[in-house]
Specification:
By secondary structure, the protein is an alpha/beta fold. It folds into three domains: 120 residues, Nucleotidyltransferase, domain 5 (2-Layer Sandwich), CATH 3.30.420; 165 residues, Nucleotidyltransferase, domain 5 (2-Layer Sandwich); 109 residues. The chain has 13 helices and 22 strands. The strands form five sheets. Strands 15-22-21-17-18-19-20-16 form an eight-stranded mixed beta sheet, sandwiched between helices. The longest helix has 21 residues. It is globular, with a radius of gyration of 23 Å.
Length: 468
């Protein structure tokens, strides 16, 4: 098929960067004799400088410097914006909470073209970073449970993957720029999210005063210990509990642990103790000292820790794999809500004999997406038994009676129409129902669903391509 150009824009709490990629696409026939477009080689052709995220007065994102950063990248590669065929704008961390976050994402997508636009809340950011850091791939390759801690400027975003599938995600107020300083070694910012730790431990850290390095180190040690606790390696303290900004479930025993983000990159650099002040003055924040204390804690668990494949760039580099296909003729579709675009996909690992556990498996993950629609990909068999379909329909009903979003179900096997009918009979849902078969997806993919064409439904499955 040839090559396409892809762009990724990551607008984070502290930093913003742009990546341009050249993606080779090839087309083959699937087992169902439908054309599937897949990714061949992905070559990163440009990495922008990492800049501080531009914030205007009234705490709004400044769109123009970000657009300039994008234009500089295109110019450096000799690419016109009209040549960009796909990509992703990811707005994460505290920046996603700015009043104009959605507007900036929309402006960038309108400026550059057809995008997967994800204004990520803290838990969704955890999932994206876990993919970008290589934790999801590592868990799949080794059939292990892998926890990734993505620690940026404002938040820690954690995701647990088991055998390649997302198991849980959570976020905390732990980051490298929660205390900032100037060239005169005076404190210019203290986040109110960690003020209680400073007060309860009587640490001499005050806004406008000269930094007390010993006190800062004590604070960083507290935060590093909190990181270890929430990783399932120690009991979670009352202090750590106060730092959560999303629901937390104590993780099952992890096999491997990775750390990404700007602080994670500093962990991998292993700063020497006698250079910590120098590095803090380089960044004008507490990030290097926090990284050092986390590094010291992780050295107690050498069998668990492994370097992440990415640090500060552990985010999406482009919406890759636009695989156009057509759902089979046995579908169940209420077309009044179509077309729909950029719907995230949650993939169930359950086989038909365990469909009775679908609610328990899916509901915690579905909650990550909040008020946004999400599709559930179901693993089935060619001709499931009536009793199994009834149980599945009842479980789906339990899930979607707790949300106002439409019921969107995907499966590779040919039972979409039967399931749609069973949901109407046994699911007791009032929302529109869309069931599509012949669709092969992975967790973390996105799907566009078009209006029906006769008895078939056109779809585009889009896989986010991460730096590896």
């Amino acid at each position: 098929m040839g090559d396409i150009y892809s762009i990724g824009v990551d607008i984070g709490t502290s930093t913003t960067n742009v990546i341009l990629s050249q993606i080779q696409l090839s087309t083959s026939m699937s087992a169902s004799l439908l054309p599937v477009t897949s990714i061949g080689d992905t070559k990163v052709i440009y990495k922008s400088p990492v800049i501080f995220t531009p914030i205007k007065e009234h705490q709004q994102i400044d769109f123009l410097p970000i657009r300039d950063l994008v234009e500089d990248g295109l110019s450096s590669c000799g690419i016109q914006k009209e040549q960009i065929e796909t990509g992703a704008v990811i707005i994460t961390g505290e920046t996603a909470r700015k009043d104009n976050a959605a507007g900036v994402g929309r402006e960038l997508s309108e400026y550059l073209g057809d995008f997967v636009v994800a204004c990520a809340g803290p838990q969704l950011e955890s999932v994206l970073a876990g993919h970008g850091a290589g934790a999801q791939r590592l868990s799949k390759e080794k059939n292990k449970r892998v926890l990734n801690l993505d620690i940026g400027g404002g938040t820690l975003n954690a995701a647990v993957f088991y055998c390649g599938d997302l198991e849980s995600a959570f976020a905390m107020d732990i980051g490298g720029r929660l205390i900032r300083i100037n060239q005169e070694e005076k404190i210019t910012y203290i986040s109110d999210r960690i003020a209680f730790i400073i007060e309860e431990n009587q640490l001499s850290l005050k806004l406008g005063e000269e930094i007390e390095w010993k006190a800062l180190r004590t604070l960083c040690r507290h935060l590093a210990e909190d990181c270890v606790q929430v990783s399932g390696l120690a009991d979670v303290s009352a202090e750590a509990e106060r730092l959560f900004i999303s629901p937390y479930e104590y993780p099952k025993k992890i096999d491997l642990l990775t750390v990404s983000g700007g602080v994670g990159e500093c962990v991998q650099r292993k700063f020497k103790e006698d250079t910590l002040i120098e590095h803090c003055m380089e960044y004008l924040d507490m990030g290097p000292m926090l990284a050092h204390e986390i590094q010291m804690e992780l050295e107690k668990y050498p069998q668990l820790y492994t370097d992440a494949s990415e640090g500060i760039r552990a985010t999406v580099i482009g919406a890759g794999n636009h695989s156009m296909t057509v759902s089979g003729s046995t579908v169940g579709v209420e077309s009044e809500i179509l077309p729909m675009r950029n719907i995230p996909i949650i993939k169930s690992r359950l086989l038909p004999e365990n469909w009775k556990d679908l609610y328990r498996e899916i509901m915690p993950i579905l909650q990550i997406y909040g008020d946004n629609a999400a599709a559930i990909s179901i693993k089935g068999e060619t001709s499931p038994a009536y009793g199994d379909l009834k149980i599945l329909a009842q479980e789906i009903g339990k899930i979607f009676r707790e949300t106002e979003q439409p019921v969107i179900l995907l499966m590779q096997e040919d039972f979409a129409k039967a399931l749609s009918q069973m949901i109407h009979i046994y699911g007791n849902v009032i929302q529109p129902v869309i069931c599509l078969d012949g669709i092969d997806t992975e967790h973390g993919d996105y799907i566009d669903i078009g209006k029906p064409m006769g008895s078939a439904v056109p779809v585009v499955v889009k896989t986010l391509v991460y730096q590896s």
